[in-house]
Specification:
Length: about 325
C-alpha cells in the first residue's frame, strides 16, 4: 500500500512548480506546498484524484498569497524580479517546451501583469495542460469563466513575447561566448554579442548594490562589464555558468564561495537583449550562503582603481543605503 505521505512526495515537484510560477518566489512556493500537505494530511477522506486535489489546493493557497504579495511588490525598492531558480524539480517530456518557456525571467515578469486568477488559470491550463474542469475546480470559477480568463491571459502573454527567439543550442553557444568575453573584460567582444538597445537591470531590493537605471545600450553595458568583472575575478570572485530560470546565466560567488548574485541572459534573434541580475540577499538564500555584496563591490572597485585610475568618462560610484552602483 502506498501511504498518503508517499503519494504527496511523488507529487511535490509538480506542486512546487505550479506554486513557483504563480508566485515567482521559491520561499513562498515551498510554504504553499507545505501548507498543502498539512491540509491533505488533515483531510478525513481520500480524494478520487490526488493529483487534481493537491493541485487545486496549492493553487488556491498560491492565489491568496499572491494577492497579499502584490501590495509588498508595489512598495518594493527598485525593479522586482522573481527569485532565481537554478533547476525545476518537475519535468514532463510531453510539455517540456511549455515548462521551459514559462520558467524564464521574461515570462514570469509577463505573468506579473495578469490578475491572480488569470495567472493561475494560465499556469494550470497553458503550462501544465490541466483540463478546464480541473482548472475551474482549482480556482473556484465556472468552466466558461475559466475559458475567458485563459483567452485574456494568453492574449497578454503573446503580446509581450518577442517575435523571434533563438533555439536552445544557439542560445547556449552565444552565452558561452558572452561569458568568455565577460571574464576577459573584452569590450569589443562583449559589444558584438549585445543588442544595440540591450538593458542591464538588477534587483537589489534596497539591500544590495543595484545598477543605475540608465544602463542601456551596447557600448554602455560593455564598458561597465569590462570595468567591473576582471577586478572581481582578481579578488577571487568566481563566475559559475549555470542555467537560471531555464535561461543561460551564471552564479557569481566571492572568494569564499558565497553567492553574490545571479545573472540571467535574455537572448533574442542571436543577441543578448536583457541581462537581469538578482543581488537582493533575501532572494538568494536557497542558492547557497550569501555574500556581503557591498563589501565585494568595495574591494572590486578598489582593485579596479589601483589598476586603472578612474578617468573622467569612467567613474564607479557605490553608495550603501541607496542600493545604487553607477558607472558614468
Amino acid at each position: 500500500m502506498v501511504t498518503r505521505a508517499e503519494r504527496f512526495e511523488q507529487l511535490r515537484p509538480l506542486l512546487f512548480s505550479i506554486a513557483y510560477r504563480v508566485l515567482g518566489s521559491v520561499g513562498e512556493a515551498e510554504d504553499a506546498v507545505q501548507e498543502t500537505w498539512l491540509r491533505y494530511d488533515a483531510s478525513p477522506t481520500e480524494p478520487t484524484s490526488t493529483k487534481s486535489f493537491l493541485s487545486a489546493v496549492v493553487t488556491r493557497i498560491s492565489i491568496d498569497v499572491l494577492r497579499s504579495a502584490r501590495v509588498r511588490r508595489e512598495e518594493y525598492v527598485g525593479p522586482w524580479f522573481p527569485e532565481p531558480l537554478l533547476a525545476d524539480p518537475y519535468s514532463d517530456p510531453e510539455r517540456s517546451a511549455e515548462l521551459a518557456d514559462s520558467l524564464s525571467m521574461a515570462a514570469l515578469l509577463l505573468l506579473e501583469r495578469l490578475s491572480p486568477l488569470e495567472r493561475a488559470v494560465f499556469v494550470l491550463r497553458e503550462v501544465f495542460g490541466f483540463g478546464f474542469g480541473e482548472v475551474a475546480a482549482a480556482v473556484g470559477r465556472s468552466e466558461a469563466a475559466c475559458r475567458q480568463l485563459a483567452v485574456r491571459a494568453r492574449r497578454h502573454m503573446d503580446a509581450g513575447r518577442p517575435r523571434f527567439e533563438a533555439d536552445r543550442r544557439a542560445r547556449e553557444e552565444l552565452a558561452e561566448r558572452f561569458f568568455d568575453a565577460f571574464r576577459e573584460g573584452e569590450v569589443d567582444g562583449l559589444r558584438a554579442l549585445l543588442a544595440a538597445d540591450v538593458r542591464l537591470v538588477g534587483d537589489g531590493g534596497g539591500k544590495a548594490p543595484q545598477w543605475s537605471t540608465h544602463f542601456a545600450g551596447a557600448e554602455n553595458v560593455a564598458r561597465l562589464l569590462a570595468a567591473l568583472v576582471p577586478p572581481f575575478l582578481r579578488i577571487g570572485g568566481l563566475v559559475e555558468p549555470r542555467p537560471v530560470n531555464g535561461e543561460p546565466g551564471a552564479v557569481l560567488r566571492d572568494r569564499d564561495g558565497k553567492v553574490v548574485g545571479t545573472w540571467a541572459l535574455d537572448i533574442v534573434d542571436g543577441q543578448v537583449r536583457t541581462i537581469r541580475t538578482v543581488i537582493n540577499p533575501d532572494k538568494l538564500g536557497h542558492v547557497g550562503p550569501v555574500a556581503d555584496a557591498w563589501a565585494v563591490l568595495r574591494e572590486t572597485t578598489r582593485v579596479a582603481a589601483e589598476a586603472h585610475p578612474p578617468r573622467t568618462d569612467q567613474v564607479i560610484r557605490a553608495t550603501p543605503g541607496t542600493g545604487v552602483a553607477e558607472v558614468g
